[in-house]
Amino acid sequence: PLSKFSDLTYALQNSDLLALYFAASWCPMSTPVSLALDSAFGKNDVLLTHEGGTRKTLSLVYVSSDKTPQEYNGYIHDRNWMAIPFESSQRSEIKRHFSTCAHRELEELGIDRKHEIPTIIVIDTRSQGIITTEGADDVDQMGEGALEHWKDIQKRVRRNEEVMLQKKNEIMTEAYYG
């Protein structure tokens, strides 16, 4: 469960979808994705920020593979994203949890990497289930339309969860009452 990551608590509690953006300022592949995110969501009021306010549809949280605090601060400066603090141990823990990191971090993290940077993993904050690991491609191909795509997937997943729960309850009721 993602509740073990206190750095994600605010995003999980105040948005419907959580997009974890694994990237680095020094990575040339991250730059176009970051620009696409800025274009799609930089001025959009669907995005949750630390400034508070009402619940939002999407929280975008940067999980940095930057080498220094200066790189990290320079990259997130003037961006509307939330970020796991550079000095937080949870940065590495989240990378391990999702097996997602830069190649240069593999040995340090001791993981078998499933996803390299840049990667956007989109999560349903209610179930904490993964909606997609292809968020970077979605933003690149659909721009702000990626959000509707993710919401559609979320609706289908939630509908399936409700059907499964209903069937489970029917089976339990039948087993109990015969």
Briefly, what is this?
The protein is of the alpha/beta class and 178 residues long.
For the structure shown, list the relevant keywords.
178 residues, alpha/beta, 5-stranded mixed beta sheet, two-stranded parallel ribbon, 7 helices
Quick one: biggest sheet? 5 strands, mixed
Strand content: 15-25%
Number of strands: 7
User: What would the principal axes of the Cα set say about the shape?
Assistant: globular
Task: Name the assembly state.
Answer: single chain
Kindly, what is the distance between the CA atoms of the first and last residues, rounded to a whole number of angstroms?
35 Å
How much helix, percentage-wise, in residues?
40-55%
Strand order of the largest sheet: 3-2-1-6-7
Q: How would you spell out the order of helices and strands?
A: HEHEHEHEHEEEHH
CA radius of gyration is: 18 Å
User: Uncertain spans, ≥5 residues at pLDDT below 50?
Assistant: none
Structural class: alpha/beta
Number of helices: 7
Would you write up a description of this structure?
The protein is of the alpha/beta class and 178 residues long. Helices cover 45% and strands 19% of the residues. The chain has seven helices and seven strands. The strands form two sheets. It has a five-stranded mixed sheet, sandwiched between helices. It has a two-stranded parallel ribbon with strand order 4-5. Helix 2 (30-41) packs across helix 6 (135-142) and helix 6 (135-142) packs across helix 7 (145-177). The protein is globular. The mean pLDDT is 92.
Protein topology:
Elements: H1 9-14, E1 15-23, H2 30-41, E2 56-64, H3 69-76, E3 82-83, H4 90-98, E4 100-101, H5 106-109, E5 115-116, E6 119-124, E7 130-132, H6 135-142, H7 145-177
Parallel strand pairs: 1-2, 2-3, 4-5
Antiparallel strand pairs: 1-6, 6-7
Helix pairs in contact: 2-6, 6-7
